[in-house]
Design brief:
The complex is a heterodimer of chains A (593) and B (123). Chain A has 18 helices and 11 strands. Chain A has 4 domains: 155 residues; 199 residues; 79 residues, no CATH class; 96 residues, no CATH class. Chain A has 593 residues and is α+β, with helices and mostly antiparallel strands. Chain B has a 5-stranded mixed β-barrel. Chain B is elongated, with a radius of gyration of 20 Å. Chain B starts with a helix and ends in a 6-residue tail after the last helix. The chains are: A alpha+beta (593), B alpha/beta (123).
């Protein structure tokens, strides 16, 4: 019954969008667009809530519930299981997209072409969930209703993974709001709260995904340039560029183009994630959906290109050096996003055009990222300095001081390479500039914006050093036999076993300088799968990160992998600070208005 | 003038991307195809994992050793990095590394396990 109700809600939502599309197409305005979209949104939301309810109530005859849930799951994981597989996550994706369409249409009047695209998106996605990847399909096993489900993917038994998809979907789908806002005649010349909210959500989503990978996957890192990671990072870059367009006059004409580009990247990311178009460790389905999605992506691409041509046709002379600098920054963001996209598509394109089986891996993405981040971080403080006149002395002092520090560091430490020295100079340049500007700031807005950019730099320092200076060591430890590693004493103190109804966990008790950690191996009964749980000691200068590889049969020896990750804490602090200061900046602006 | 600067910027970018792509591209091969080369750096090899074991390398350290096979031929693979959780006998693995002296020295190993992510087929 519940499956039929859910499907009926979705079908009604689909029909409402079709009605809206027909009325829009024939300019028959006897029912307001806003009413149609409001109805369609609440129907779609009801469909998703019905799906969540079927997870909570253990309705295993519902396809998605049978595939991704089980009786013994905690309530919170049952709810999370609703977006853990292809079917539920696509419905959630659609619901969030429709939410932003609803919010956009509530605030703005649309032009015809844009509204046709919006209706098409909604019809297409609700149609996919209805007819191709329907989570409400009825399931029987050997002719009877299943008493239990197949269980949740063990890697998703993690708090960060509960929130990561929600935030990422909110962030990615808010791009449709950017499209709606910029399609309207009545658009404000300021970033509105929903635009800022979308960017904050996307940043939080990527951030939580990184923490989850770090704590759950056990390979000692938080970013691996996987196509699915890239598919959220590419829209983040264009979204960030879009927000900066509001800071200078010449950026105005590119807003609609960047709104479409961000939305295109968001859809394209979904295409990559859902269809197995590129090899990824994340890819969780190769479905026939690919062909339909290709068509949708192609439609979005054409509109993006059309808006690009419209934007460049508008002539505008930029004389001011601040405007030129901001234009360079926008270009760098967009080219960086396109370069990553190129890296993702290189393999499939080479295969398609030349029949060559090649791919571009992590070294490519690392190599292209260095110059882009170098340019972006170098011009960032100039943005503040050029905004007001009479800052030549401050700039000169910052540049000279930064170079002196970098050269001194380069000559003093053998481990610092020339690339490291360049980035040290950039980091110092930013820090000195922001400190100088901070003393001259007159309003809270200026202070908060400086803080936002200061935290970007802090994150940059963390990423640069944790990524480049990581040390990993394979180690065998015998019980009560201490080993010294980089001035740390590591002792294995025996094993400990814990069991519950979902999994059995074998933990190795390890003392690192008298701090006890318990890296473990967890066996999930239902999925017949083993996962690693890490042991972590966080210090200011570094993380000592241990993952368990093997326990000898007698339990007297363990093989572990030890990672020394420098300055990881700066990454977490930097991104948290960035998010907090930007949120405060927005809240402050809201109340001031 | 500005258009010219823009053009130079774009040309430099394309040149940079092309250069990095050529330098960093990895050929995707099967184990039987890799055997035709005596030495080949930066390769990606797809195959099934067989005979996996942990081997000692002295000084309390260890590495993983396994055979990667495509049912036509198999190659010896050694790896000292992080072993993915799903790397086990019979699993399909994607190995990136350098091939020389009859051994594939893996820099990274990824596993592809469709059963983990894909829905189970139901009749």
């Amino acid at each position: 019954m519940i499956a039929k109700i859910g499907w009926a809600f979705l079908f009604a939502s689909f029909c409402s969008f079709i009605l809206g599309f027909i009325l829009q197409f024939f300019k028959a305005k006897f029912i307001d667009d806003k009413n149609i979209i409001t109805t369609a949104f609440f129907l779609c939301l009801s469909a998703y809530l019905t799906l969540v309810l079927s997870f909570v109530l253990d309705k295993f005859y519902v396809y998605a519930v049978y595939q991704y849930s089980e009786v013994d799951l905690d309530l919170i994981y049952k709810i999370a299981a609703s977006w853990s597989g292809m079917h539920g996550s696509l419905l959630l994706w659609t619901t969030v997209l429709v939410l932003f369409i609803y919010l956009g249409v509530k605030n703005f009047e649309l032009k015809k072409l844009d509204s046709i695209f919006i209706y098409f998106s909604a019809i297409f996605l609700t149609g996919l969930s209805l007819f191709l990847v329907n989570p409400f399909q009825y399931v029987t096993v050997s002719g009877s209703v299943p008493a239990d489900g197949l269980g949740l993917n063990p890697l998703l038994h993690n708090g960060f993974m509960l929130a990561h998809p929600i935030f990422t979907y909110l962030g990615l789908n808010s791009s449709v709001y950017l499209v709606l806002k910029n399609s309207s005649e009545r658009q404000a010349n300021k970033i509105d709260n929903l635009e800022a909210f979308g960017w904050i959500c996307l940043t939080v989503g990527i951030f939580l995904g990184g923490i989850w990978a770090y704590l759950e996957l056990g390979w000692g890192g938080y970013w691996a340039w996987d196509p699915v990671e890239n598919s959220s990072f590419i829209p983040w870059l264009s979204y960030t560029a879009y927000l900066h367009l509001f800071k200078y006059k010449a950026g105005e004409k590119y807003r609609k183009f960047l709104a479409y580009l961000t939305h295109f990247f968001a859809i394209f990311g979904t295409f990559l994630t859902r269809t197995g178009f590129v090899q990824s460790v994340h890819t969780f389905s190769n479905s026939e959906m690919g062909w339909y999605l290709k068509f949708y992506v192609f439609f979005a691409l054409i509109l993006t290109f059309y808006n690009f041509l419209t934007a460049i046709r508008k002539q505008e002379k930029t004389q001011n050096r601040f405007e030129l600098l901001m234009s360079l920054q926008t270009l760098t963001f967009v080219f960086y996003a396109l370069s990553i996209l190129w890296g993702v598509l290189y393999g499939p394109l080479a295969d398609l055009l030349f029949g060559e089986q090649v791919i571009l891996g992590i070294p490519f993405f690392d190599a292209i990222s260095l110059p882009y981040w170098g340019i972006l971080l170098s011009i960032m403080p100039f943005g503040f300095l050029y905004r007001s006149s009479g800052e030549t002395r401050g700039t000169l002092v910052s540049v000279i001081a930064s170079f002196i520090i970098a050269i001194k560091a380069y000559w003093s430490f053998d481990s610092i390479s020339s690339i490291d020295a360049i980035f040290i100079a950039i980091f110092c340049f930013n820090t000195i500039c922001y400190t100088l500007k901070l003393f001259r700031s007159k309003t809270s807005d200026q202070v908060l914006l400086l803080l936002v950019h200061f935290f970007v730099i802090l994150t940059g320092v963390g990423i640069f050093f944790s990524y480049n200076k990581k040390i990993e060591i394979n180690l065998r430890l015998e019980r009560d036999n201490p080993k010294e590693l980089f001035n740390h004493i590591i002792v294995f103190k025996g094993i400990e076993v814990e069991k519950n109804r979902i999994f059995e966990e074998v933990k190795a008790k390890i003392l690192i300088d008298n701090k006890l950690v318990k890296p473990a191996s967890r066996y999930y009964f239902k999925k017949n799968q083993v996962t690693a749980e890490i042991g972590l000691v966080t210090e200011i200068k570094k993380d000592i990160y241990i993952s368990l590889v093997e326990i000898a049969e007698d339990g007297e020896t363990v093989a572990v992998k030890v990672y020394f990750n420098p300055w990881v804490i700066l990454v977490w602090l930097g991104i948290t600070g960035l998010l907090v200061s930007y949120t405060l900046y927005r809240i402050h602006g809201y109340f001031r208005l | 003038m500005r258009v010219l600067i823009g053009l130079v910027f774009v040309i430099l970018l394309i040149f940079f991307l092309a250069n990095q792509s050529i330098e960093n591209q990895k050929k995707v091969l099967k184990p039987s195809e890799l055997l035709m080369f005596e030495k080949k750096n930066l390769v990606r090899v797809l195959g099934n994992v067989r005979n996996m074991r942990i081997a000692n390398s002295g000084n309390d350290s260890f590495f993983f050793e396994f055979e990667l096979t495509d049912d036509v031929a198999s190659i010896k693979t050694v790896f000292s990095g992080y072993k993915p959780e799903l790397l086990q006998e019979g699993i399909k693995a994607i190995v990136d590394g350098d091939w020389h002296s009859g051994t594939l020295y893996a820099a990274s190993v990824l596993t592809q396990c469709p059963s983990k992510y894909e829905p189970k087929k139901i009749n």
